[in-house]
Amino acid sequence: MTIIDLEHVHLFCTALGSDRAVPLLLVHGWGGDGREWSAHAETLADRFRVIVPDLRGHGRSDVPDEGNTPTEMADDLAALLRHLGTGPVIAAGHSMGGQVVNLLAVRHPELVRSVVALDPAHGAHGAEVEGIPARLAEYRKRGARAAAEFIAGAFPAGAPVGLRTAHVRTMLGTPDHVIAQAYAGMYTDSGAVGVRPHSEAYLRRRTQPALTVWTSAQAAQWERGTLRVPGSRVEHWPDTGHYLHEEHVGRTVRLLKDWATAGHGTR
Q1: H or E element in which residue 214 lies
Q2: Cα-Cα-Cα-Cα dihedral of 204, 154, 190, 62, to 10°?
Q3: d(C-alpha 192, C-alpha 72), whole Å
Q4: Closest by Cα among 197, 233, 205, 182 to 105
Q5: d(C-alpha 21, C-alpha 16), whole Å
Q6: Which of 120, 126, 183, 241 is spaced 20 to 30 Å from 218 by Cα?
Q7: Separation between Cα atoms, residue 107 and residue 113, nearest integer Å
Q8: In the prediction, which pLDDT does 266 show?
Q9: How far apart are CA 88 and CA 82, in angstroms?
Q10: Cross-strand bridge partners of residue 233
Q11: Tens of pLDDT along 179-236?
């Protein structure tokens, strides 16, 4: 499985595991691609049908001139899942991908069994919100170079060797207009859900159980207050950088397996 023609967009996608297994969708974040899930996908393929797309504008998928936003990406994934005939999936995403899988769950609830969001791009508040206009202006002016400078600071001193370099390199390879459009789509466009009041409104529309993992204790406490669906929970992983799933591959794999075992892989 490589390039899939969804008529309105071509997405690069790979799949591992049995077609009869529970489908698990793994979604990368802003300026990334599906390669960040490679170690997880190989390990999880003995338990799940693991589906790993590159989002529009990223990796080997199409790069539209417009519409490179989380909402459009969620709708692309809905079309992809219908094309593949997977039935409802466990939808897991990191950062912007966490926002995308939550949008997928809200906009296309019949396609999602449950959600796993890892340090998702929602719930922004305070100084983070105050800095959004200046960051967006930089992304519109300098594109991937500005984004790479920002993301280089997302890794702790103890991060695996090469992880920072890999993500800076991938970010620099993302088209400038995609960087700016995706960021605006997360936080400033009409209907964007990244800022806390908008995040709360859309998370309360989600009907599926969700597991959210935060590296911020404050963010974890906030999201616990938004939970409405029985079986949902929030975890806090302290002393971890933003790319927690790659810093702790084994722990993330166990998290996903345990989540499915607890009944969130069935519906």
Answers
A1: strand 210-214
A2: -110
A3: 12
A4: 205
A5: 10
A6: 183
A7: 13
A8: 56
A9: 10
A10: 211
A11: 999 999 999 999 999 999 999 999 999 999 999 999 999 999 999 988 889 999 999 9
